[in-house]
């Protein structure tokens, strides 16, 4: 006769119980509350009303979904630009700069201890009409700089600047994981410098590139300060609409519907990427 045992009979499961409770209360429960609110009537503050789809209908009927496209476009462009910028820098930190790598790493890290808003307002003073850059160009070269601030390019610049460390450091780790023996073996077999990079270094550093891209994309799609400070609210990301719905509009169900829509889109995109790249195979687990 097979004895029935409790799920928490094993010591490991009992030890994991506090973590499960913490995750349930701090992560799963708020998500379920947001999903539940998204089906409540507009401008209600309880979960005990008859479910409705009017909030999702409002998102698409009022063209609110356009803000989602702005967020997706800016986040994707940020990832592409950072991948192109950070790979050479990360390669230099690992293979070229030697003892100066620590100093350069600190230079990339120090801005993180300063508030993001303070750094962005610093760029406002740098780019604003009559500011540091336009004033310098006019004084020294007699060149009048066009309007850069409060444009999509300014927002993209701010996102690239803010999220650069989140792409750079995982990419640096990925490049550092490439064994020197692999490159030396490729050179001994007659591979050119470009072939070594294309066939050895780039594939083996893919985990760092992919992790950095996913991390940067998830953070960038939720960006709001860059659009407010550098974009002058001429560009409205979906996070701005969520903030307005939960605060000034006092329409929690609509804000919840926007948040659920954002979570679904991000989750689907991340799952597509994870299915495209086999992490176990890339990391050498099989």
UniProtKB/TrEMBL annotation:
Pfam families: BPD_transp_1. SUPFAM superfamilies: MetI-like. GO terms for cellular component: plasma membrane. It is found in: Cell membrane. Keywords: Cell membrane, Membrane, Transmembrane, Transmembrane helix, Transport. Its main location: membrane. The chain crosses the membrane at residues 20-40, 68-90, 97-114, 120-141, 148-169, 209-231, 252-274. GO terms for biological process: transmembrane transport. It is a multi-pass membrane protein. Residues 68-273 form the ABC transmembrane type-1 domain. Belongs to the binding-protein-dependent transport system permease family. CysTW subfamily. This is Spermidine/putrescine transport system permease protein.
């Amino acid at each position: 006769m097979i004895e029935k045992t409790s799920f928490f009979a094993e010591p490991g499961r009992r030890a994991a119980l506090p973590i499960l409770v913490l995750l349930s209360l701090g992560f799963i429960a708020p998500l379920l509350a947001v999903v539940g609110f998204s089906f409540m009537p507009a401008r209600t503050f309880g979960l005990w009303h008859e479910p409705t789809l009017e909030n999702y209908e409002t998102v698409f009927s009022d063209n609110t979904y356009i803000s989602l496209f702005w967020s997706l476009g800016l986040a994707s462009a940020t990832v592409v630009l950072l991948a192109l910028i950070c790979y050479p820098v990360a390669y230099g930190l690992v293979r070229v700069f030697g003892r100066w790598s620590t100093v350069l790493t600190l230079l990339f890290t120090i801005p993180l201890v300063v508030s993001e808003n303070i750094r962005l307002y610093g760029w406002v003073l740098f780019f604003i009409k009559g500011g540091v850059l336009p004033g310098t160009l006019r004084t020294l070269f007699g060149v009048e700089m066009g309007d850069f601030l409060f444009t999509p390019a300014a927002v993209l610049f701010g996102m690239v600047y803010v999220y650069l460390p989140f792409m750079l450091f995982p990419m640096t780790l990925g490049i550092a994981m490439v064994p020197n023996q692999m490159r030396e073996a490729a050179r001994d077999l007659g591979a050119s410098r470009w072939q070594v990079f294309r066939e050895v270094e780039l594939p083996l550093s893919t985990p760092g590139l992919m992790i950095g891209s996913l991390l940067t994309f998830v953070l960038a799609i939720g960006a709001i300060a860059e659009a407010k400070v550098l974009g002058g609210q001429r560009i409205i990301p979906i996070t701005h609409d969520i903030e307005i719905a939960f605060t000034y509009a006092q329409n929690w169900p609509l804000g919840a519907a926007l948040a659920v829509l954002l979570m679904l889109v991000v989750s689907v995109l991340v799952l597509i990427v994870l299915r495209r790249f086999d992490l176990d195979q890339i990391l050498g687990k099989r």
